[in-house]
Amino acid sequence: MAEALRRVAVLTSSFNEAAEAALAQLAAARDHLGLELLMPAEEAAQHPARATLGYELIDEAALRRVDLCLVFGGDGTILRSLGRLLGSAVPTLGVNYGNVGFLASLPREGWMAGLAAIVAGERRVIDLLTVDAQVNGSRFTAVNDVVLSRVAPRHVLQLEYEVAGVTVGRMFCDGLIIASPTGSTAYNLSCGGPIVEWDASVVVLNFIAPHSLGFRPVVLRPDHIISARNVSPLQEAEIVVDGQSVGRLACGDEVRIAAGAQRAHLVVRSEGSFYQNVEEKLFDRRDAR
Questions:
Q1: Domain regions of the chain by residue span
Q2: Where are the alpha helices (DSSP H) in the chain?
């Protein structure tokens, strides 16, 4: 069993009644659980009752030294925590206060009992593969995916792509997705790509609306580098890293994408958490048991 957790930083999706109630409930259980509750400055600004409830204010450096980051939110909020803590050893635990909450290990109802077990040591930390994008001398790291997306709605993208130094071909499409295993259940899934277990060491190459009857998503080794060049005469490609635009590719510009050196750290309750989430949250079979 893992060691007990003590210093816990808390993040939420936004200021609302549900989040405030969760913070109050956690504060009431602080002594029972043996926790020190912490909150970064920008999070504290959303919660006027933070000081009254006993949450200690911390800076970014201290956030990266806590034992656990506890997130009350959906997949987007959990993803932002994972990305924010890259390069540190701090794991993120999600309580599902969103819609799907695929990355969340605890449900909205009854989360306190699950948290008590996790704090006491009944947990597993999964090291999640990331994806790096290099463009114009800059490097960006994604926990979920790197996406090339067309900008002008009237013109299709033309992308020429290579894998491991081999030119594969040219694709007319609306965009390109390079997803980590974590991101396989996000945009990649909606485009017909495969579901990949969280701790698999692979990346997925997939196109958005490819103009081809022959293309299928490809699962690649982590040491393979994908190069994508925009060869569209009339269309720019926007580069989106975990939902954030980081630049554009004009005609002739290229981006290189590969598995990243850093890992994000996600807390789950058991070995089967991934498969349970697939069954319950993607196939919606919560009532089948």
A1: 7-123+269-282, 130-262
A2: 17-28, 30-33, 41-44, 50-53, 60-63, 75-84, 111-120, 187-190, 273-277
Alpha-carbon distance of 110 to 97, in angstroms, equals 12
- What is the DSSP code (8-state) at residue 75? H
Distances (CA, A) of 112 to 3, 19, 27: 19, 14, 11
Amino acid at 61: A
Give the pLDDT of residue 15. 65
Architecture (CATH level 2) of domain 130-262: Sandwich (2.60)
- Determine the pLDDT at residue 4: 77
For position 289, what pLDDT does the model report? 35
Greatest extent of the chain over all pairs of C-alpha atoms, in Å: 64
The SS3 of residue 269 is coil
Give the tokens for residue 261: 């050196």
Q: What is the pTM of this model?
A: 0.91
Q: What stretches in the chain show pLDDT beneath 70? A: 1, 15, 285-289
User: How many helices (DSSP H) and strands (DSSP E) are in the chain?
Assistant: 9, 17
Q: What is the DSSP letter of 281?
A: I
- Indicate the CATH number for domain 7-123+269-282: 3.40.50.10330
Residue 1 has what pLDDT?
A: 59
* Residue 199 designated active-site: no
In the chain the first and final C-alpha atoms are separated, in Å, by: 28
Which of 31, 59, 67, 75 is catalytic? The answer is 75
Q: Name the DSSP letter for residue 223.
A: T
247: left (phi over 0), alpha (psi -120 to 50) or beta: left
